Amino acid sequence: MSKSQPKRYEPVNAAPVKSFFVHMLTRDIRLEDAILDLLDNCVDGILRNREEKGAARAKKPYDGFWAEIEFQSDSFTISDNCGGIPWSLHDYAFRMGPRSDRPEGASGSIGVYGIGMKRAIFKMGKRCLISTQNAKDAYDVEIDPDWTNDESDWKIPVRPATTRQPHDGTTVYISDLHGGVAKRFGEDAQAFQRDLEAMVATQYVSIIDKGFRVRINGELIKPRPINIVFDKKAIRGREAIRPYIFKAQSNGVQIFLAVGFTRPIPSQDEVLQEQEEKKYSTLDAGWTILCNDRAVVYCDRTELTGWGEAGVPRYHTQFIAISGIVEFRSDDPAKLPTTTTKRGVDASSPLYLQIKNKMRDGMAIFTSYTNKWKLRPEESRKQIEKGEQLSFEELKAEALHLPLNATKGTVPQGEQFRPSLPLPAKIVPSMRRISFTKRVYDVRKVAEYLFEDPEVDPSDVGEKCFDITLAEAVK
Amino acid sequence: MKQPAYHLRANKAVDRLTLIDVIKRASTLDTHTGEYTYYGFGGPYLEDFRLLYEFYPEIRMISIENNDEIYKRQVFHMPCHSSQLKLKKTEFKSFLDQYDGNNEKSIFWLDYLDLRYAWFDEFMELLTKVSNGSIIKITLRCEPGDYIDKCEVDAGRKKAEFRDEFRELLPHSTSQPPADFAGLAKLLQDMIRIAAQKTLSAIMASQFFPISSFRYADGAGMFSLTGMVCAREDVGKAKHAFGDWHLRNLNWGTPSVIDVPTLSTKERLHLQRRLPCDRYAGRVLRRALGYLIDNDIRRTEGKLRQYADFHRYSPYFMKAVP
Predict the structure, then answer these.
(1) Which site among A53, A199, A290, B17 is 20 to 30 Å from B237 CA-CA?
(2) Which residues, in sequence order, are CB contacts of B297 under 8 Å at separation 6+?
(3) How does pLDDT run across A321-367, given as a tens digit for each residue?
(4) Which residues, 6 or more positions from A136, have their beta carbon under 8 angstroms from its beta carbon?
């Protein structure tokens, strides 16, 4: 070899490695979220299907469509009647990641990254059969461990379906489950099903409310809607319990925001009780964020949604009655402020940050009301109970009749309704609240002495003691 | 404060005695009973401690009680020397925060009088703290009447409150408190199962499995489940120790009923010679008595079947003239 001859370098191989997709990408997502990715595909199928039929904007766009999830210790299946995967989309549906020439998704879809279905499959098992039927196309795609292990072969065999289904749709059957997944589907089945049901009931609350039916191991999932109090009978311009509403449109994204009360504000006793012992009322408080009908955040009570920032107090049990919903809707899912997993909001999105200002703005009205009325919860209760609890869709319909004012000074520009909530009359100075703490045992003892019932409400015990002493004092 | 007459509750007494059997069988799993420490909420009479001391004097015992007066009564009713039984005056939650089960096998009886989410919370916290081989018994109020009301609105509110309070553990979001005792007991068992699965999920090294579960009513309905925490790979072996116990419920099956009949001592002694009786126990014992002890043959045989199942555990209550 000549001394002067330079060493030759071969071009390096930068081809993707399958194991990256199979073993690494799947670490970024929880099992429950991977399953929800498959459910998202069902929803996207509905929208594609409905759009082709020109009915995507119907009031109940998901009516008549269903998805069924079945899992056991050795397999997972999700099947739907949501239209199937058209053969024309096969190169996009089965590719790892989105192609740049990918046709735009159906309007209103949420999928944008082209990894959900594949990631979900690899998350769960080593073998998968996808059977899909769309109009004249009916085909099966099978992924097996040999394909996964062969780094040179990226093509997946496709064969015509052997049978015709009564409806267009897709079935994904996954077997050879990974050890951890098999255990969760087997030994932890009850807890896993409960958690998955709760996630579907909250994150698909709007979609199920609009007609979609989801079953998990045969159990039909009921949505957990957030209903906000709206006093319809209030005379225009008068004080009444109504939500704050903001509507806007920005760069192809429609925004609708509503925040208000879901229930009467709690009494001081309820607040103390809630703090001492984990109860339930807090669960429905906070902000829910919908992106194209999908709840990406559910009942959040942190800085993410404006609590404890810029004049809004930190979340406290005192505020268990306050809930808000923000809806972002766009034909281009890439414009929505959601994360890749669709299980969170992109907190750095300029659009979201702008809307967060309005969320805080609206929320402050209700935290302020709560603080003003917290010593007179019974009077406040009467005001709140005058109103009806309206669903998000009912609120949107009601907003059409409200006197909305333009918000010219804010970005994005939009329209808002700022409710005029009742203000407490100045507290009569002759009345004072008395509050003190005594040992439970002693309170019960006094209750038994005064009422012959140790279970009497402690505030009644205290009041009775005061009344007796007062009667003696004025003798 | 009114306290339930623990020592006069026949069905509860049976449930208490089944724990003695569970300990006996658990001790065949490479464990000497002296390795255990028993923790309970013994009530004013420390009945479970008295029983435990009678059968297993080598087991160390700790009673947890927060009420001043009950604590004083416990001091009065100490069944043994304080070297063997320690009375702690504290809330169970505070006790649990300090408890470190790493170096011992424990037996806990979480004997609650009512039904609250907080009790499941304490159960879940305990699961994360006990060492393998430990036994946990949890007893909860299981009274369908708590959720029934003549007023439809109030009944709906009670059911909604139940759903809201326990939804983290309900098998389905639509689960309602069943109107029947058996159904509510099964639901509580499912909730305990979910609590256990959430806390010791299948990817963890330890598992909680049930050994027995009962429902009974000496007044209000109660549900009582006993289980064991053990290394996942040892579950088969541990279950084997209870495999031939006639009161076992090792796979979260339907909870058994404890409803022992009230029989006189003379009747019991008369039936004793026919027991145990595996087949047609109800009929055999009815014929042995020669008369009905309930409204009809079916009910009488049902009661006597119960007696056959639990006769070894049924307490004798006798009048003593001082």
Answers:
(1) B17
(2) B286
(3) 899 999 998 888 888 888 866 778 888 888 888 888 889 988 988 98
(4) none
Same domain, B213 and B281: no
| Segment among A226-235, A309-318, A363-372, A424-433 with least mean pLDDT | A424-433
Starting at the earlier edge strand, list the strands of the sheet with B134-141: B85-89, B60-65, B36-40, B105-111, B134-141, B221-231, B206-217, B256-258
**Do residues B168 and B122 both lie within one domain?**
yes
Contacts of B197 in chain A (CB under 8 A): 187-188, 190-192
* Helix H or strand E segment including A127: strand A125-134
Asked if B79 and B85 touch (Cβ cutoff 8 Å), the reply is: yes
Class of domain A228-417: alpha beta
Summarised one tens digit per residue, pLDDT across range B175-197 is 889 999 999 999 999 999 999 99
CB pair distance less than 8 Å for B167 and A184: no
On whether any CB of chain A is under 8 Å from the CB of B175, the answer is no
The answer for residues whose C-beta is within 8 angstroms of residue A401's C-beta and 6 or more apart is: none
* Assigned domain for B319 exists: no
Based on the domain organization, do B213 and B305 belong to the same domain? no
Q: What is the mean pLDDT of chain B?
A: 89
Put simply, the answer to whether B173 touches A183 (Cβ < 8 Å) is no
Query: Please, where in chain A does CATH 3.30.565.10 lie?
Result: 18-220
User: What is the CB-side half-sphere exposure of residue A9 using CA atoms within 13 A?
Assistant: 3
CATH of domain A18-220: 3.30.565.10
Asked if residue B3 has pLDDT above 80, the reply is no
Contact of B171 with chain A, judged by CB distance below 8 Å, is answered with yes
At residue A354, the pLDDT reads 87
- Token reading at A210: 């609009």
Name A379's Cβ contacts closer than 8 Å, sequence gap at least 6.
Answer: A373, A424
B207 and A279 within 8 Å at the Cβ level: the answer is: no
Specify the DSSP element, H or E, that contains A245: strand A244-250
Task: Give the residue from chain B lying closest to A283, CA to CA.
Answer: B164
Confirm or reject contact between B233 and chain A (CB < 8 A): no
Asked if the C-beta of B201 comes within 8 angstroms of chain A's C-beta atoms, the answer is yes
Q: Are residue B295 and residue B197 in the same domain, yes or no?
A: no
Residue B128 Cα to chain centre, angstroms: 20
